[in-house]
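User: Hey, quick favor. My workstation is busy. Could you predict this chain's structure for me?
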Amino acid sequence: MIDFSLTDEQKALRDMAREFAKNEIIPKSAHHDETGEYPMDILKKAWEVGLMNLHIEAENNGAEMSDFDEMIVAEELNYGCSGVATAILANNLALAPVLVGASKELKKKFVEPMTREFKLAAYAVTEPGAGSDVAGIRTTAVRKGDEYIVNGSKQWITNAGVSDWMFVLTKTDPSAGHKGMTGFIIDSKSHGVIIGKKEKNMGQKCSDTRAVTFEDVRVPIDQVVGKEGEGFKIAMAAFDHTRPAVAIGAVGVARSAFEHALRYANTRNTFGKPISSNQGIAFMLAEMARDIEAGRLLAWQAAWLIDNGYKNTYQASIAKAFCADMCMRVATDAVQIFGGYGFNNEYPVEKLMRDAKIFQIYEGTSQIQRVIISKFLNDGKGIEGPNI
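Assistant: No problem, here it is.
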């Protein structure tokens, strides 16, 4: 049986996230976009009401929410402002490989404290010369006794400047390809961790995005996530959890752009009638609504699959590629419907168009998602639907 209904608990979670976006994010989104100020106060409130660290297991004092639960939260927060939402949800990304692969002892040391006090984490994988090509990273970790010595640099790391710890992917055996990669939890205050300047980006301006350099950083052996050589596998497994969340975030931004465009089209008159009555505009709005609905279902499917124990890599890549491209298209069309006003930063769709672009880039570009999808198709898998 196929059932698209939400449980009473999920409806309550949606309503809480929606009210939080309405009351805490939307009134402040323009300020944070204009100033680039990190929304620390908003994040602390999100932590207090339970909208952060959604997936920490019950045995570590967490809410142990499902990936599908995150679909509900992430859409509403991104509807409010995707820059603020990225800051709020970055902990989920950093936690993903740790929850997938870390030992109970490591979770007790780094994960459980996040349920007792407000802490932030970062996912440090991307490098200046290795973005979507994760296997191309050059940061090294060399074993010396009971420690590893980490050297290298990372780029575009969300929450780097405010994080308490980072998940860092390194090469421990450069000759072994992706099987020679190892993940660590590294305390952000460790000697030799150098945090770069806050980047000035096109959109999501309040998100704290920085370079991180590691100079002879000493990391205890018990802070390896999983085992030596399992880093690539763990990092890729984390994407199966996080890409549906990025996809639904794009749905939230697109939904906001669409609603602004619809309201404007119903009140802006030309030739004595609302522009929404003109077929050219009406069809644009219809296609925007169609694609938002399709994107939500793709993201929901990808999350549902992994929650129920099925492999979702193919569906996660389809959801991420479709929703990212859809979001950019919907935001651009919203600007077009607003006309000259849409090009002006005193109107909301200009910001949404800038914010939308990053969805086609982070957590694997739209082109990389197509590479993944194509590989499944070339291997004779995928198109017949999930094997469930």
